[in-house]
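hi support,

uploading two proteins for the ticket. first:
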Amino acid sequence: MRGYFVTATGTDIGKTYVSASLLSVWRAQGQTVAATKPLMSGFDEDTLEQSDAGRLLVAMGQAVTPASVSEICLHRLAPPLAPNVAMRQAGISQNYNEILRFVEGRLKTCEGCHLVEGAGGVMSPVTDTTLQIDLMADLRLPVILVTAPYLGSISHTLSALEVLEARGLDVSAVVVSQPSVHGSDPVSFSEELNRFRDVNLFLVPHASVAPVADLARHLRGS
């Protein structure tokens, strides 16, 4: 099993788009794929296919049902809030060890290429006392960092790389997404980022799947 943790510089950056595209490319190549989204918030139960977990299931070639979503997602919370806040408001116990065991169990039982998609950014909360970076450090999976060319993103991306490396995590790829068709040019952003850091950089322009094939090959070969 080859696994990766997909994180980002913030929310609505393109984690799920990149994750689903990778799963689709690998599956089209005949690879066995799996995904885990341990925490999900801000979705409509009546339109599960449009949720992050739903989109991952579609990319895996699986039906989207409440049961199948529960298989890959431990806690799904409707309010568009940080998971720890949503769990607190819903009266759900914030058991970090339970979340960690859920992901570890998925990694042990699922074969092939496995993506674990975090919630929010690198330093976003998991519970009131733990962060996404803590979950990444405990899982020890190589990381795919998704960023985007928005104002302030150079700082956010460099900060994310610093904290990931400080925790001893291997950043296998930095993906420059373009969540909006009106977003800034990912090429110019990448050139600026390369002034400060030498990283494995992959560009995924808006609604473009083809460049993900290069990323998929890189990850399979790394």
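and the second one:
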Amino acid sequence: MARVRANGLEFEYDTFGDPTAAPLLLIMGLGAQMIAWDEEFCELLAGRGFHVIRFDNRDCGLSSALDHLSTPDPLAVMAGEARPPYTLEDMAADAAGVLEALGVPAAHVVGASMGGFIAQVMAIRHPDRVLSLTSIMSGPGGMRDNVHGTPEATAVLTQRPPSDREGMIEHGVRVSRVLWGVHFDEEEARRRHTRAVDRAVHVEGTQRQLAAIAAASSRVEALGRLRIPALVVHGEADPLLPAENGRRTAAAIPGARLLLLPTMGHDLPRVYWTPIVDAIAETAARADARIPPRAGGPAAPGS
């Protein structure tokens, strides 16, 4: 793993696949480190002809922590009674800055959950950086256009974890039990959360990211102006961001493909990796724009 400086901050990142292949940027969700993009999933993408780049968002993992900023109550932000310390637009600028720092003019951009919000904003605000857009288990933003999840899913996501290592791991397992649904595997959940806790913990950073989500307005109108290949992936069993969010996102983007996966909750279960990777490669192949070839030339996605 390595670090780059972008948008005035430091970002931890790593890559998979041939550096001369078509770049693909992965953006993860709320409080989730880049390792939430499983290495095997990344290798599957690399095997389809992509140079895969994953990174820790600001205030998460090993990237810059912004502890000098305030940590407002997300409910107060949503009500307009407090301002977020930064916005999704700032986080989209981070992602664009990571590409610039790596010398990548543009990439296929894939975001999950909050990462999907960021990917959408990146396509809207930094269109020259985005060859194709994939939004996974995300939504179109705003109080009016986002459909809220179940009370249990919302509550478990917003609960602050204990401060001790074992308590944080057990808290993560409880969150996964609610969000993953039928694909919940306790051993896998414990492995993932143990690895995440031992790598980095940043509870206040997650709260600041949540405030950025709470402050976001609807993107429906702006999504309607996109003219790039787009894929929207959503689980029909998602308790946090119900599938209607995926339908609304796909309906907002001209020509977007909607891939609904019947038993998927708010997670990327292994059973669906191949159809998701296939759909990403097919979407990338529809992109008319291509980055200037680097040494050896980029491999065609899906090759």
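thanks. also noticed: Residues 9 and 62 are 11 Å apart (CA to CA).
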